[in-house]
Structures are given as structure tokens and as C-alpha cells.
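Single Protein Entry

Contents — chain, fold
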Amino acid sequence: MLLAIISDVHANVHALGAVLADIHSSGADQVLCLGDLVGYNSFPRETLALLREHDVRSVHGNHDLMALDRLPDDGCSSLGRKAIRWTRGILTGEDWWYLGGLPAELRDQDALLCVHSAPGDPLIRLERSEQFHAEAEGLMEAYPGVRVCFTGHTHRQRIVVVTPDGEIRRSGVDAELPRDAICFVNPGTVGQPRDRDTRAAYALFDCDAWRVSFRRVPYDREPLLRQNRRVGLLAPSQLQRMAARVLGYPRP
């Protein structure tokens, strides 16, 4: 079986559409999402409708919980808080029910676990080696059969392997996973890049070969940026870049 793993869509329906088209062409059997369906961008209703249309199974992320007012938004940037408050005002009743019904985790084929960031904590940013050690120990205790944990939240494509002897191995390229280790796989972000690559990101996981393949998908960002600007959801740096393109100045 071939699984497509997506995460951090953040109300970017244009990126999501491009990713779903690429997933279809890849022959993936199922799409799993690691949450943060809304937030930051200006197409939350369209994004949720597209996810429902394609029967994407998803967990909730911290932005989804903030939109539902189940988490405070004081940990966000000013733009993140503004986007969450704007999103609350335009979601339909059906959208509220959909977001409210998302689980905290998904278990697939016993050995695979999907969470937004870490089991029981959608806010922690897994980055340091000691964090991965602690999470690996927690997984072995709470989920004895799990060997791969798909985790989002940081918006960075990467693989972190915790070997049986406690060694940490990190990689940002396609790889076959060891079956005797605890592996954390982050597919990157569909809709809110935080590096110089503005393409949408996701990952494929071959359940037979135990192999992760990272994907990047180009899409037209201009409609998203125009709508974000119209509703007041552009960061200052994005406003500067848009102004530079319109006026013909060098990009800042």
C-alpha cells in the first residue's frame, strides 16, 4: 500500500488542489493529514470542502483547535491570531462540525501513528535530540507496535530515526526506514512554507518497502496572495514583495 501524508494545509486551497492532483498521479491508495487545516490563509471553507470531497482522513492541529476556541491563540504571531479570529467568523456550521470531529491521532496498520506534533501535545515543536528520545520512549510504552510516527507542525520535511541503542539520525532526503527503530517522519507543509522553497510539500510512504519519498509541487500562489491581501492576512514581507512586483522594483 502507498500512503500520501500531508500536513499544515493552512487554508491554502490552491496548494492543496495541486498536491491532491500530484497524489492522484502517484497512485497513492490513501491520503492521511496531520492537521492544521485552517489558519494563516484566506480559503478555509474551500479547503475543508476539498478535503471532505477527497475523503482525506485527518487529525486536528493546534490551529484547528484555536479556530474552535479549544486552545488559546496567544502563542501565535500577530498574523496567526488575526487569521484565526477572521476564520472563526466565516466558518459554516458544517465546517465547525467537521473540525470538531477530527481526532487527536490516527493509527494505521498498527505500526503507523499520525499526530499533529506529538501524542497528546499538538503544540510541542520536536527539534532537539532529547525531545525525540523522550517521544520514542513514550511511544514504546504507550504504543508498543508503533515504529513510524508521522508528525507535522514544524513545516519542515525530515526523517528522524531513534535507533535501538539511542542514536539519533536525521535526514531530509528520500530513505528506506529501519524496521528496528522508532522513526519520526515530517512531510512538510502543503500551504505555509517557511523556507525559500514556496512549492507545496508532502510525503509518500510505501508500506511494503518501508520507504519515504518527499515531494514538492509547484502551484500558482498569486490568487492566494491577492485574497490574503484583500482580507488583511498578508505578512509585511509579503506585502513588500507584492508591491515590488507591481511597481517593477527589485524584490526585497
